[in-house]
Write a structure and sequence with these properties.
Length: about 300
């Protein structure tokens, strides 16, 4: 007896098809966004061609409209970096949506005030340009991503924000890391749809390799987003390291690495990373430069 296959034949989804010349019209120009972090902005670049030869030109910051991961273990400067970035954008006259998942908003506000003072930025110039979404206090913003994104859409439309900080994205999939990709991707797609430039903090476990982009949830965050900045710290245990880093044995040095950026060229070397007594972060020389100086 002949049986009929009742399975529905899939139909092509033509909304997802387009010629390069049609899509390219919607492509934004490549611009840099100053970060407010000394030593960082010149590490991104683009290439111009002159007389058939490539010429590298500084971008002057992270790529506009990029969604970047800032990852590292605790006490490497992740939150300081995004707070510094927030103050810089507010100083430049832009509004930032700051989604705090780790510490309640009043405590983050205290940190931002300290960062502004250290940067020489009057607090009254920036206090009306940062909008908090407090997921640390209100758990529904952590546990329900659609509610979080709906709230963020309201903030973007109401306050005309152009920048988003999430500290941290890891809080959205605590105790359910198998779902990390399903959580990170809609956040990424949302930020792209709304043309936001964003920094997303993610936590590394102490067992992860020092300067890889892997964070809690595996490589889900780094693979989906536009790029990763990795922060690490290392204890100086030998006299050779002591001479290289210029610190006594037993001290801790911090390290910085741009581990990929799909939107622009970038310096791929490992750099020294500093946290100043004033609570600001800055990127120092590449380790290869220190090694060269040590050989002289």
């Amino acid at each position: 007896m002949e049986t009929r296959d009742t399975r529905r034949e899939a139909q092509p989804f033509l909304d997802g098809v387009g010629l390069l010349k049609e899509v390219a019209v919607k492509a934004p120009s490549l611009e840099g966004v100053p970060t407010g972090v000394e030593g960082l902005d010149e590490l991104f670049f683009f290439t111009e061609w002159r007389n058939g030869k490539p010429v590298k030109k500084p971008l002057g910051g992270i790529p506009k409209y990029s969604v970047m991961q800032i990852t590292g273990v605790s006490d490497t400067g992740k939150s300081l970096m995004v707070e510094q970035f927030t103050v810089e954008q507010a100083r430049r006259g832009f509004t930032v949506a700051f989604i705090t998942m780790e510490s309640p908003a009043p405590f983050v506000a205290m940190g931002l005030k300290q960062r502004a003072m250290a940067m020489g930025v009057p607090f009254d110039e920036v206090e009306s340009r940062v909008v908090f979404i407090d997921g640390a206090t209100y758990s529904v913003l952590r546990s329900d991503v659609p509610t979080l994104l709906s709230t963020l859409a309201h903030v973007i439309k109401t306050y005309k924000t152009e920048f988003v900080v999430i500290d941290s994205i890891t809080s959205l999939y605590e105790s359910r890391e198998m779902m990390a990709r399903d959580i990170v991707r809609p956040v990424f797609n949302f930020l792209k749809k709304w043309h936001q430039t964003a920094l997303l903090v993610s936590q590394k476990r102490s067992g992860h390799e020092l300067l890889t982009a892997e964070a809690a949830g595996g490589y889900a965050v780094g693979h989906i987003l536009d790029g990763s900045i990795v922060l690490g710290k290392q204890t100086v245990t030998t006299s050779t390291q002591s001479r290289l880093y210029g610190v006594p044995v037993g001290e801790t040095v911090r390290l910085f690495l741009i581990d990929g950026c799909r939107l622009a060229g970038h310096d791929s070397r490992t750099h020294i990373f500093y946290i100043t007594d004033e609570g600001l972060v800055r990127v120092g020389p590449a380790l290869s430069e220190l090694t060269g100086a040590a050989k002289m």
